[in-house]
Amino acid sequence: MSPGGAGGGAGSPRVLAILLGLIGDTLMRLPAVRAVRERHPEARITAVCDPLTAPALRDNPLFDEVLPLDRRGASLASQLAFYRRLRRERFDIALDFYYGARTPLLAYLSGAPRRIGPARGRWARLLFTDPVPFPLPPVHMVDRHLEIVRPLGVTRLTRRWEFPVTEQARRALAERLAGAGVAAPGEADLVICAGAGDVSKRWDDDFLRELIARVADGELGAGRRALVVADQREPDLAAALLGGVAGRVVALPPLTLPELGALFAAAGLAFVPDTGPVHVAVATAPRLITIYQSTDPQLHRAERPGYCWLYRVVCPWQPCDTRDKDKCHLECRRSLAVTDVLAAAARLLAPGAPVGP
Fold first, then answer.
1. Which of 141, 219, 224, 274 is deepest in the core (most CB within 10 A)?
2. Residues 218 and 336 grouped into a single domain
3. From edge to edge, which strands make up the β-sheet containing 249-252?
4. DSSP assignment of 216-244, as one string?
5. Are 144 and 174 members of one domain?
6. Distance between CA 85 and CA 87 in Å, rounded?
């Protein structure tokens, strides 16, 4: 097949996109998937992703099918059944955007005659038909993925950040909140995301308790309601943070990513740590306060109206160098006070202040 060719079908290949990983990394791979879609509009593109990100990708028109793969809790029998299902799809091309230790084998077991991914070691070089030189260029993660699709004749990416909020997601959110006895969100509501998978990006519980209590006491306006939503990996955290707090404050059940996007879009302001939800909020929330600036402000539209980031430069890495997290004392977070968040919120909520996204 030629570099721009489609393999099994003229202009309509069956493409497997390996998109394992958390939501932020997954969203940063989508410009490369979009480039494949633009080159082959008739392609059938299937994503393999983690179960937590699957609901978000199902709402994205880039994909014809989304297959969640549980890499940790699945039995051997269910994994073998998953690989057999992949082979039945008769993929023409497998693209490894995750480039983990096992994903070259996943691409190989898909049965795709053309398999593209980084040559991270001998096995990868053997299992990929088009091994991409590794390490990839030292550029932003979005641009790095151009190397994975370049063998298909793609020469540029459209750097666009998006997270569709569908009517289906709005209905699902309404049903979820109604089932919990919570009134629908609106302009007067403030969403506070509690918890984070990465400890270096997670606000301390005492900080969040003070923020929640002061919002409940009316510091941002007597009519404002604080909606506290927990990370799916810490489902009880929201309720725990509300212990002893009175006033207009509600602990929400954990939400799927599409439901979270619908919540951000409907509320007046979102306060989100720099973890998975911030990638959703950047594309959906009219007003957003986060801890860190994106490592790629242009892509994340960090200067857009209604976006305030609170990071203070007190250490060499922004937001974090993962190689040194064991040495991190979280000075960047601890240099901030609840008053900083409330002051930023007051500016964003002032009459006439511009909004996004």
1. 274
2. yes
3. 249-252, 225-230, 189-194, 269-272, 288-290, 307-309
4. HTTTT-TT-EEEEEE-TTSTTHHHHHTTT
5. no
6. 5
Same-domain pairing of 242 and 182: yes
Per-residue pLDDT of the chain (357 residues), as tens digits, is 333 344 444 458 999 999 998 888 898 899 999 999 999 999 999 999 999 889 889 888 899 999 999 877 677 888 888 889 999 999 999 999 998 888 999 999 999 999 999 998 888 889 999 999 998 888 888 889 999 999 999 999 888 777 889 899 999 999 999 988 888 899 889 998 886 666 666 777 788 888 888 888 888 887 888 888 887 666 666 777 776 566 678 888 888 889 999 999 999 999 887 677 888 888 899 999 887 666 666 666 666 788 888 876 656 655 555 556 666 666 667 778 889 889 999 999 989 888 877
Beta bridge partners of 270: 191, 288
What's the total number of domains in the chain? 2
pTM of the complete model: 0.79
- Give yes or no: residues 173 and 140 share one domain: no
d(CA 246, CA 244): 6
What CATH code is carried by the domain that includes residue 104? 3.40.50.2000
